[in-house]
Design a protein that fits this description.
CNF1/YfiH-like putative cysteine hydrolases; alpha+beta; single chain; 13 strands; 6-stranded mixed β-sheet; about 20% strand
Length: about 270
């Protein structure tokens, strides 16, 4: 059950993050926007190929619903790598152009600043939100197979630890809607890539009729556990974007030129707690 009121917008929240009154978090879906075709209707992909007018209107609708200004929302230009950007006071002091450059080429953002919403965009890849309630720090991660394979979550947790003294055992993590192992067929080169990174292949791949299917949820959960995150602190939404394509955008089903959902997280200032 989410805490947002507009029934035109279908917004997902996570039980393990909803326990914290100082947090705003969300994952968008397709409903309630102005875009059409493969972008219908709430496309929040700034680099998706949709018209800028539609994208801006969709963000306006969405930000109004979740209660933030568009200037508070920071989204990177993702490149399927494992680099982490810190949103700090120096970042905020820069103009929009300089900020955009600093957001280019990153698939994860972290911050400890209140009222700054960090997010990522997905359409089958895995959105992951992290919260350190002890040190008041957050992370938003885009983990496709390449990012998962290169253990982007390990980099994120190490960066949280370095910058904010996060203890992984304190982290609360939500793994959001993304493509499921039931339908995520991949080539042998993907299997080999994970093998090279010392993943236990039998735990993250299913083989059916000589075809391999990748379980991104389990692969990322394994990385979290190995980094010290507690099993009971990990929530997996189990929504498959490909199978539930009428509710979520799926690049595999709709093509690259289609919409994106956005997942975000923000620490609310003390005066905004409810």
């Amino acid at each position: 059950m989410n805490s947002f009121k507009n029934r035109k917008l279908d917004i997902i929240q996570y039980e393990n993050l909803q326990k914290f009154n100082d947090l705003l978090h969300f994952t968008s879906t397709r409903a309630g926007g102005v875009s059409s075709g493969n972008y219908a209707s709430l496309n929040l992909g700034r680099f998706s190929g949709d018209t800028q007018e539609n994208i801006q209107e969709n963000f306006s609708l969405f930000c109004t619903e979740v209660g933030i200004e568009s200037s508070q929302l920071h989204l990177p230009y993702q490149t399927h790598e494992n680099h982490v950007q810190v949103i700090d006071e120096d970042f905020l002091k820069q103009n929009k152009s300089a900020q955009a450059k600093k957001l280019h080429g990153f698939d994860a953002l972290i911050t400890n600043l209140p009222n700054q919403c960090i997010g990522i965009s997905t359409a089958d890849c895995v959105p992951i939100l992290l919260y350190d309630p002890k040190n008041k720090a957050i992370g938003a991660v885009h983990a496709g197979w390449r990012g998962t394979c290169s253990q982007i979550l390990k980099n994120v947790i190490e960066t949280l630890t370095k910058n904010y003294k996060t203890n992984p055992t304190d982290l609360i993590v939500a793994i959001g809607p993304s493509i499921s192992v039931d339908v995520y067929k991949v080539g042998l080169e993907v299997v080999e890539a994970f093998k090279k990174e010392n993943f236990e292949i039998e735990k993250i791949f299913q083989k059916k009729s000589d075809k391999y299917y990748l379980d991104l949820w389990t692969a990322n959960k394994i990385t979290l556990l190995e980094a010290g995150v507690q099993l009971e602190n990990i929530e997996i939404s189990e929504h498959c974007t490909y199978s539930e394509h009428e509710r979520f955008f799926s690049a595999r089903r709709l093509g690259i030129k289609s919409g994106r959902i956005t997942s975000g997280i923000m620490i609310k200032a003390q005066s905004e707690e409810y």
